[in-house]
Input
Amino acid sequence: MASSIFNYFAALNNLDRAAYVDCFTPEATLQDPYGGRVLQGEAGLHKFFDGMERTWQSFQMTPGEMYPAGERVAVPWQATATAKSGKTAHFAGVNVYTLAADGRISQLEGYWDFKAMVAQIQ
Output
C-alpha cells in the first residue's frame, strides 16, 4: 500500500517526472495545495511537474509517519528546497492520499502554506 507513497517522495526528491506520473492512476486528481486549482489526469500531473521544474534546482521532501484509514493515508512532511534563484525555502505540511485498488494514488490533497513558501524564495 505504501510503495506508491514512498515512490512519490523519491520522485519529487529526484525531480523525476516519469516516476512521479507513474505513482498516480491515469485519472487521478491533485489539489496541492488544497484550496487551489484541482489538476486532473496525466495532463494535470504534468502541469504540476512543470511548476516543480520551473521553480526548483533541488528539492528534498521528508515524510513523517504514515496514518492509514481505509483507502486513505495521511502523511506529514517537511521540505527544504532551493529555487532556481538560489534562495532556499523550508516548509511543511500534510498530504492526504487516496489509493486505488492497484495501490497507486487516485487523489492527493496537500495541506500547506503556499504563500509562506513563495515569500521565502522571492
